[in-house]
Amino acid sequence: MRAVIGLLVVVAVVVIWATNIWLTDRFTEPTRSRAELRLALYSGNVQSELQRNSVVPLLLSRDPELINALRAEDFSRTSQRLISFQSEIGAAAIVLLDGSGRTVAATDRNLLGTNHRQDIYFVDAMRSRDTVFGVARRDSGAYEFTFARSIYHEGRVIGVVAVEVDLFKYERAWAGLTDAVAVTDSEGRVILSTEPRWRGLRLDEALAVRDAPSAIQRALRAPADWGQERPDAYLSGEAVMRNEARIPFRGWRIVSFTRYDSVRERVNGVLALEIMGFAMLLAFTFYMMSRRAWSQSAVFQQESAELRRLNARLQREIAEREKVQKDLAVAEQTLAQSSKLAALGEMSAAVSHELNQPLAAMKTYLAGARLLLQRKRPDEAMASFQRIDDLIERMGAITRQLKSYARKGGEAFEPVDLRACISSALAMMEPQLREREVKITRTLPRRPVMVMADRLRLEQVIINLLRNALDATKGVAEPHIDLLLSQGETAILAVRDNGPGIEDLDNLFEPFYTTKKPGEGVGLGLAISSGIVNDLGGRLTARNGEAGGAVFEVQLPILTSETQAAE
């Protein structure tokens, strides 16, 4: 009997191994063919997009209105004309530069006035009479593809027109269809990829072919490599096949990596049936061997009686557990009612806390308006009354929006420039800033830092952080507050003071936690601010600075063109 079992095991191993080899070879070829067809389609799409955009600078360089605008330096309607061209052509962006490299018209009006004298496409266009192509890397790590051509009038260069090609839409389209796709330039450097970390690297450096991360994972994945040659590459520890095609443009190539998942699923389905068949044979063999143990049936009967007694005991325990669950449900209802009452208390305290700032500002503006009326300066007094009216509207909005502390609100978000929110918050804090001598330093980018947010709620967060910084520097000889705004993958606003710092970082954002004296605060400012930032998809953090003082950081997602289109 042991010889029969050993022979059965050997036959099973041989049959499964041979089947795996044959089926893997059979199913791998169609998968590779489909991957090559997709790659040819991707290559054609990229080439078509480049060819379609390459003729645009030639047409625009001969446009009479653009030439006349550069000659007369009248660009009042030029940007609108470029926008109309963009909608017809489908280009990512169109920019018109004068002879000095200054942007005089653009489809993105935020670029007006910027200087591109040092950009490679501008330099090449000024040196050539033909259309030039440039590839430049952005600060975010992505690449910018631009066709440019100089504009001549009476044999003299008067400007340059540049058309940016949107190739990133193919990255988004490729993602999910195959495991990874990359486009390399003539030097083998990755310029487009569904894996953002590959951009700027050579393909062999980005791929870094290696086995699975650990011996255990290699052992678990070993059956996936049965019956096939060594995989072309490994992507995140998974075996993939590599396919490559040429893009007939400046020596570019496109490479795709496809996992063997579809092949393994089909092969493993057949292998599972074979394994099940051999398992049934082994089970039948073991059944025949177990017949010698039938004499022990009396022992099994005794065990069955013990199981019945155990079942009765379990039923009693289940009945007791159901009774406990009923008692727990009553306790949960009582706790829910208590939570509602606590939420009402928090809402009342939050309204009182958030309205203190506008009320203090209204008091200052009323005093100023009274003094201006006494001095017979009604126009300036009317400006103060207008500010008071704005504050009243703001207070009404605050009472509506503070409901988000207890439940999510339905406020509509819109594109907001963080720099404008900082300026508005400082204007709101003007009465408190005049009462003390506090040095405030602002470090802001020159370009707009756009985020998707509710402007009023975002300004309230900045006001709360400024107010905390002012309170923290009351006992400092030379109070100093820094506002630093930076942008990368996210927008980061840091509010730093030179106060004593934070003692308890763990409970800082808990409701009603405060280090201020009674009457000076209720401990809801940071809790509300953290909730607002979370609703905006960001994060509010706090830490102690290296040179002393507290540092609060607000991190929010950057509003890019892709994000804005998705919104």
Automatic annotation (TrEMBL):
Keyword DNA damage among record annotations: no
Annotated coiled-coil segments of the chain: 297-334
InterPro entries per UniProt: HATPase_C_sf (IPR036890), HATPase_dom (IPR003594), His_kinase_dom (IPR005467), HisK_dim/P_dom (IPR003661), HisK_dim/P_sf (IPR036097), Sensor-like_sf (IPR029151), Sig_transdc_His_kin-like_C (IPR004358), Sig_transdc_His_kinase_DctB (IPR017055)
Pfam families associated with the record: HATPase_c, HisKA
Main location, first listed in the record: membrane
Sequence ranges assigned to domain Histidine kinase in this UniProt record: 350-560
EC number: 2.7.13.3
Origin: domain of life: Bacteria
Name the record gives this protein: histidine kinase
Organism taxonomic ancestry: Bacteria, Pseudomonadati, Pseudomonadota, Alphaproteobacteria, Rhodobacterales
